[in-house]
């Protein structure tokens, strides 16, 4: 169900008014009378996946009824089929469309620039998505670009408006997801639109080049992967990798870029700054022009200075930290994932529908977790939820796979004593320990 941004804001305001008046927003009166409240669980894009259930092993039933949001547009079945042809084991599609579009936009920008120079590619990226001849398929868009025509790419994730001047989507679609019996219940998925089409850039890019009139580079366009093959965000790797692989396959089937097949150099970000920096260093040595990644916002923040110093493009399909909109990047950082200033509104909406009285917001301690936590808190406050009804907690994620697992025992005890009836968990695979700790501390999780 697609809900307009205006109606969503009105619903938030109405819900906030009810809460201020002492009434629940859809709350069950019998539940209000319970001395020990049952806790509803909520999640965000880092853990609302089928792969997350595997982190619980035999305790996956703890997730039954958990709700949350993720940037997701209704994906055409044909696109899913093409992804499964690349990876038959695929069970999730989180950020697959964003990964696909990031690779396609990079290729189109290089074709329009008539060059594989990263600086020239960067100057075309925003323009690829705005104020040109509308096209949707890589083959169609590449044909126009080879003829020197300005294009306006509309892909799988980028389907309403183009990029802003900052190089990120002006609009987004969010899915409200719900866990059923140990996996997401697709029948309960709803879609909510967000953003403002008028925020799309109106600037004209540099003049595009006809392929037959420009100098064809002696080397092909090289894209380097910086995706979370390992680490806390590894649960999101399969759809990210499948989206990139599918885009590369279809671009090269359509004749490639500037007369050459586009090359892909694989690379892991490890959900770890040290691992990611090593990968970036290798990509620089291997002559990569555009790096697709990183998976996590904090990892992109860590490697961006190195990427910028080398003069390469960093293009992430899954960074959502709102602070990255204004990061110093010399015009070399882009993303197809929308900022969390938009997801914060969608998450607050989901939580408020259930009429909570005390809300705990638990986040991993990094730019993604703390940034989204603050966005949700601000949206709850805007809807009339007083500060004493919201509790903020953070945790340090394990440094790497060899580190001891997260111990959230003290935090769980604090949430229980606070009497929360809603807990939002913002994290990646490691956040499963938060939910286990809640259950082990005697918190009654509502299913």
UniProtKB/TrEMBL annotation:
Residues 1-26 form the signal peptide. Residues 222-444 form the Leucine-binding protein domain. PANTHER family: LEUCINE-SPECIFIC-BINDING PROTEIN (PTHR30483), PERIPLASMIC BINDING PROTEIN OF ABC TRANSPORTER FOR NATURAL AMINO ACIDS (PTHR30483:SF6). Keywords: Signal. The keyword Cell membrane does not apply. Belongs to the leucine-binding protein family. InterPro entries: BCAA_transport, Leu-bd, Peripla_BP_I. It comes from Micromonospora haikouensis. It comes from the Bacteria. Residues 188-219 are annotated as: Disordered. This is Amino acid/amide ABC transporter substrate-binding protein, HAAT family.
């Amino acid at each position: 169900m697609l809900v307009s941004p205006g109606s969503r804001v009105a619903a938030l305001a109405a819900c906030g008014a009810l809460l201020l008046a002492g009434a629940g927003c859809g709350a069950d009166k019998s539940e209000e009378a319970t001395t020990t409240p049952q806790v509803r669980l909520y999640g965000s894009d880092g853990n609302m996946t089928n792969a997350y259930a595997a982190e619980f092993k035999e305790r996956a039933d703890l997730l039954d009824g958990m709700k949350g949001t993720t940037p997701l547009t209704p994906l055409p079945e044909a696109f899913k089929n093409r992804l499964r042809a690349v990876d038959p084991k695929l069970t999730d599609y989180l950020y697959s469309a964003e990964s696909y579009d990031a690779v396609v936009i990079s290729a189109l920008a290089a074709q329009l620039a008539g060059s594989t120079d990263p600086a020239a590619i960067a100057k075309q990226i925003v323009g690829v998505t705005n104020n040109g001849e509308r096209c949707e398929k890589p083959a169609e868009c590449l044909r126009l670009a080879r003829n020197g025509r300005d294009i306006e790419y509309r892909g799988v994730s980028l389907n309403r408006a183009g990029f802003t001047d900052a190089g990120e989507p002006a609009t987004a679609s969010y899915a409200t997801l719900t866990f059923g019996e140990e996996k997401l219940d697709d029948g309960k998925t709803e879609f909510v639109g967000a953003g403002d089409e008028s925020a799309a850039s109106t600037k004209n890019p540099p003049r595009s080049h006809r392929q037959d009139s420009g100098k064809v580079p002696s080397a092909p366009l090289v894209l380097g992967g910086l995706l979370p093959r390992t680490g806390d965000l590894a649960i999101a790797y399969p759809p990210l990798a499948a989206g990139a692989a599918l885009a590369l396959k279809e671009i090269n089937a359509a004749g490639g870029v500037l007369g050459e097949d586009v090359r892909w150099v694989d690379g892991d970000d490890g959900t770890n700054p040290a691992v990611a920096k090593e990968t970036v260093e290798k990509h620089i040595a291997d002559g990569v022009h555009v790096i697709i990644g990183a998976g996590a916002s904090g990892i992109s923040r860590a490697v961006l200075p190195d990427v910028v110093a080398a003069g390469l493009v960093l293009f992430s399909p899954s960074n959502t930290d709102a602070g990255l909109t204004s990061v110093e990047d010399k015009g070399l950082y882009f993303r197809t994932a929308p900022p969390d200033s938009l997801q914060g509104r969608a998450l607050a909406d989901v939580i408020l529908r259930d009429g909570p009285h005390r809300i705990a917001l638990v986040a991993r301690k990094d730019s993604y977790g703390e940034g989204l936590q603050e966005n949700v808190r601000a949206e709850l406050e805007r809807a009339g939820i007083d500060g004493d009804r919201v509790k903020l907690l953070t945790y340090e994620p394990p440094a790497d796979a060899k580190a001891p697992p997260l111990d959230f025992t003290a935090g769980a005890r604090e949430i229980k004593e606070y009497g929360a009836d809603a807990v939002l968990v913002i994290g990646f695979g490691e956040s499963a320990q938060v939910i286990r700790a809640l259950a082990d501390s005697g918190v009654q999780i509502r299913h």
